Structures
1.
Amino acid sequence: MSSFRPINQWEQAMVRNRSNHRRSGFSLIEVLAALVIFSVSIVALVESLGTSSAMQNDLIVRQHALALAENMLEQTLAAENYDDPEQEGQFDGPDTGFAWKLKVESTDVTDLNKVTVTVTTAGPGRQTEASLSTLMAKRKKPDELDSGI
């Protein structure tokens, strides 16, 4: 007895499909190309995060400098401390990295001064500057007031 059995149509189709069908999956070249594309996109993402972080840090420093300039301007106006047309100095305490400059200029209008406060970072590296100006009327001393009575 022979163990030969006839092949049915379904088995014939399977044999034909196996011989004509390529292997499924990715080739080595396709995988390497995908890795290169993925690597380039990751590098670009990391660079943009670094740039974003540096810009955010600069904005924080600038915002702090503006707050210091506003505070210095308000103190100057409240104390009427603008006899000297130009003053400068360093901040103390937690703001030691900042320097300030106060400038008082006369305007074309009588008894009106332009007061400008500029705050800069005092350390090396990228320097940030914030400047605020306002107009301040010269206050007359009591003996200079006209008595219109």
Note: Helices lie at 9-20, 28-79.
2.
Amino acid sequence: MFLYFKRYTPFLAITAILVLSLIPGQFQVRTGASRHLEHFAAYFAVAGVLALAWGKAPLKLFCVGVLLMGLAATMEIAQVLVPGRTARLSDLAASDLGVASGLVAMWILLRLLPLMNRAMAPRPRAKP
């Protein structure tokens, strides 16, 4: 089951970012949260999915971060060409902050999970 998550979920998450970033303004559906919070949450989630799928090695996470930040910049620039959309530096900053926060959160989580599993494992009973 985890193999399917590892293979397909990252591509679905990136596809969702592409579609949501390039949809014309008239078809956009807002959550009611601020624009910056939406950007932060979307990229936080995608960074988390990629970190869970592709491992906890710091170099891999760094590469994922660079690629996602590049994707965020590319999507902001591409929005200039989409009717009803605008490119904003503040949106890019929120997206990049979401990427960095998501990667750091998942890196910490992936480091803590083995420790928590070890702490919660049943201990052998002492023989009388």
Note: The chain has a mean pLDDT of 88.
3.
Amino acid sequence: MQSLRHRWCASFSHQQCNVCNGSKAPIKNPSLNPLDPPLTTQTSTTFGSCNGSHDPLFAVRAGVSSEDALIHTSILLKSAYQTNAHACELVDAEVRGLLWATEQSLEMSLALVEALLDEVEARSATAALLRRSLQAGQSAVE
């Protein structure tokens, strides 16, 4: 956890960082508490209106877990990547250059989503371990 906070301070607010300023207690960041409930989408977002020619056909609903959203995003990006790679094989060199640029953007996006999913899974595992240890501690007291 300290290395994560330290990376944060290096990017944003180094002067206020307790780790860098020699304090023994790192800054408490409530968003990093593994026992907090998982993040969910808070609002509904519509899409699929064919550039405004009709009302949207689809929506991302409020209340979807961040892990589920990231998994679906990963699947969608992988599909777009495969479609783009196949299109690269079928077009002339000029268009292929544009598709390669798109492929690199898709690859970067997929890498970001996969890194976020790794973090979500790690936090989920940490939360499960903490819950079990808290339950074990409560059982020992009873």
Note: The first strand starts at residue 45 and ends at 47.
